[in-house]
Amino acid sequence: MEPALSWRDEALGRLVAESFDLLVIGGGIVGAGVAARATELGLAVALVDRADFASATSSASSKLIHGGLRYLRMGDFRLVHEALSEGQALLETVAPHLVLRLPFVLPVYDDGPYGKTAIRSALWLYRALAGQRVGGSIITPSEAAALVPSLQLDGMKTAGLYVDAQTNDARLCLANVRAAVDRGAVVLNYAEVVSIDAGGAEVADRVGDSVVAVRARAIVNATGPWVDHVRRLEDPSAGTSVTLSKGAHLVLDRPAGWEAAVTISIDKARVSFAIPWEGMLLLGTTDEPFDAAPETLAVTDADERQILDEAARGLVDDALRPEAVRARFAGLRVLPAARRGTAKARRETTITVGPRGVVTVAGGKLTTYRRIARNVLDVLRPQLGLQRLDSGLTPLPGAADPESVAVLLCRDRPELDPVVASSLAHTYGSLAADVLGADPDPFVAQVRYALDQEWALTADDVLRRRTTLALRGLATPEVRAQVDELMRS
Ligand SMILES: Cc1cc2nc3c(=O)[nH]c(=O)nc-3n(C[C@H](O)[C@H](O)[C@H](O)COP(=O)(O)OP(=O)(O)OC[C@H]3O[C@@H](n4cnc5c(N)ncnc54)[C@H](O)[C@@H]3O)c2cc1C
Question: Which of 40, 43, 272, 379 gives 310 a disulfide partner, CB atoms 3.0 to 4.6 angstroms apart?
Answer without folding.
Answer: 272
